[in-house]
Amino acid sequence: MSADQAASAVVVLPVQAAPADGPVAVRFDNVTLGYDRHPAVHHLDGALAGGSLTAVVGPNGAGKSTLLKSIAGLIKPLGGRIRLGQPRERVAYLPQLSDLDRSFPIGVYDLVAMGLWHRVGVFGRIGRREAGRIEDAIAAVGLTGFERRPIGKLSGGQLQRALFARLLVQDAALIVLDEPFNALDAKTTADLLDLVHRWHREERTVIAALHDLATVEQTFPETLLIAREPVAWGRTASVLTPENLLSARRMIEASDPHARACDRAA
Ligand SMILES: Nc1ncnc2c1ncn2[C@@H]1O[C@H](COP(=O)(O)OP(=O)(O)OP(=O)(O)O)[C@@H](O)[C@H]1O
User: Fold this and answer.
1) Which ligand 1 atom lies nearest to the CA of residue 69?
2) Which residue's CA is minimally distant from atom 26 of ligand 1?
3) pLDDT at site 9
4) Average pLDDT, rounded, for the chain
5) Which burial class, exposed, middle or buried, applies to 75 when counting CB atoms under 10 A from its CB (0-12, 13-18, 19+)?
6) What is the pLDDT of residues 91-101, one digit of tens each?
7) NCBIfam families in the record, alphabetically (predicted)?
8) Which of 119, 178, 221, 255 has its CA 20 to 30 A from that of 195?
9) Predicted pLDDT of residue 122
10) What is the mean pLDDT of residues 213-222?
């Protein structure tokens, strides 16, 4: 079958089932996500296994950010159910850099210290142990010496390093990253990818929206390809086929962003 034929006969492939006896980090039951009752993602069923490292890929407008926000609890499903395998406080979320207000008057040290809020409270005292963790995290991302620098005076790459340091001190079981390497140079990307590898070795669950398929193929064992609904989900090599990528593109081109919820059974 040619790629064109494959795209015109779009089939929603079965999504990944979590291992029957393994831990589950997130489970989706016929989930619909959207804004003002207009669905942006629908028919999402499946699970992220605990300790898995998953890329979410898809064309612009496919619903990647929407999906990640729903896992982080920032938007509620319009339909279906999302269940977490760990308490909400153990979920860390990195928004797209472009969504951040860089005029907020805060320095690198205090930004990184915010990663401890769940443990010490907003006005809690940072003891010697916590201070050591903040300093270690700042060192791990190569920002020692920048502790007092306001975030508005950092480069994009330095800000992303500081945000990764905040994730480090957060010590989350589930880490949700929205386009973490967008517009970063090769050195910064490589350094931050090392931290993703480290989290994976530590058996944390990581899910990240990405556009660079080479990075996905090299680093992410699992991939969810979406185009407002799942196109394929499983081992990266079996998901990122030319046929699936073309299907995703055609599905986005054919979709109506103003449509109401669809009645098709998941
Ligand atoms: N706050 C919002 N209010 C209304 N609609 C929104 C909002 N955020 C996203 N959308 C719509 O939801 C759909 C999915 O958007 P989303 O940002 O999740 O896609 P994406 O795959 O992350 O895209 P990109 O690759 O361009 O970042 C789009 O049609 C978008 O216009």
Assistant:
1) 18
2) 60
3) 35
4) 88
5) middle
6) 999 999 888 88
7) AztA
8) 119
9) 59
10) 96
Residue the block writes with tokens 């005292």: 125
Amino acid at 167: L
Q: Which residues touch 12 (CB under 8 Å, ≥6 apart)?
A: 43, 229, 230, 231
Question: Given CA atoms 204, 205, 210, 213 in this order, what sign does their dihedral have?
Answer: positive
Residue 126 — φ and ψ, nearest 5°?
Answer: -90, 110
The percentage of residues in the chain with a pLDDT greater than 90, rounded to a whole number, is: 73
Residue minimizing CA distance to atom 5 of ligand 1 = 35
What DSSP string runs through 15-59?
PPPPPTTS-EEEEEEEEEEEETTEEEEEEEEEEEETT-EEEEE-S
**Distance (Å) from CA 64 to ligand 1 centroid:** 8
Q: Flag whether the ipTM exceeds 0.95.
A: yes
Tokens of 22: 């393994």
Q: Which atom of ligand 1 is nearest to the CA of 35?
A: 4
The reported pTM is: 0.89
Class of domain 1-86+174-180+206-266: alpha beta
Q: What is the pLDDT of residue 6?
A: 40
Q: Above 80 in pLDDT, residue 262?
A: no
Parts of the chain belonging to CATH 3.40.50.300: 1-86+174-180+206-266
Ligand 1 centroid to residue 40 C-alpha, Å: 7
Helix (H, G, I), strand (E, B) or coil at 3: helix
Mutate to test the pocket of ligand 1, among 33, 56, 64 (most ligand atoms within 8 A of CB): 64
List, in sequence order, every beta strand (DSSP E) within 75-204.
79-84, 91-94, 174-178
State how far the Cα of 146 lies from the Cα of 204, in Å rounded to an integer: 28
